[in-house]
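Changelog-adjacent note: as of this version, every example in the card shows the full chain rather than a window. The one below runs 244 residues end to end.
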Amino acid sequence: MTNQELFKQYVETKDIELRNALVESYLYMVDILIRKYLNKGVDYDDLYQVGAMALVSAVDRFDPNKGFEFSSFATPTILGEIKRYFRDKEWGVKVPRRLKELSAKVPAAKEHLFGQLQRVPTVAEIAGYLGNTEEQILEAMEGGRAYNSYSLNQTFDEVGDVGENAILERYAAIDETGYDSVEYGEIIDIVLKKLSESEKYIFQKRYIQNKTQTQIAQELGVSQMTISRGEKSIKKKFNEELQK
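Full-length structure tokens:
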């Protein structure tokens, strides 16, 4: 019997044994999705337990008749619970002095290069500007934040190796996860391909990191009006896509 058939039976019967069988068949997702959060002060077993409980919740709420793949539905639920777990723990990272000093230089370098290049600079460009190696810059950037930043175009691959849909993760962290986040995630993916590099940067800072226009303007060394115009352009592109 396929998982799709099991889901249909579970929706009708709510049989616990069916639910357990479905959870066990998708536990591999938990193992994949927690990998990026390992070595950050939380034991594997603790993260696995959080992810597994989120998986149970996703199985309970999944409706196979809506036409979505379960992996696409469950991914934001699992990632949202993991992020909430980290926020609840309010954990911090102890960063060596040398990394703190270098990390403090990175934002100014990014702002300067952003103004020169009119796009987000690469790690190699930042390293060249500061006279450091790319490895040192990456280490400093990692040490300067509590959570990883994620590529805006990462996706979860059911066979296995990538790990997550970053856009859906943000919706999971901000709002209740489910079918709406899947639908909006597809729209976001389409619009992101149409954004310029500077618009992607503003989108990430404004809607993923929840920074204000003033904060972004200060980071980039530009006026708040510049960020406001960029945000209006982003909203316009989203509205155009939503109206299709």
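Structural remarks: The domain at 93-145 is CATH 1.10.10.10 (Arc Repressor Mutant, subunit A).
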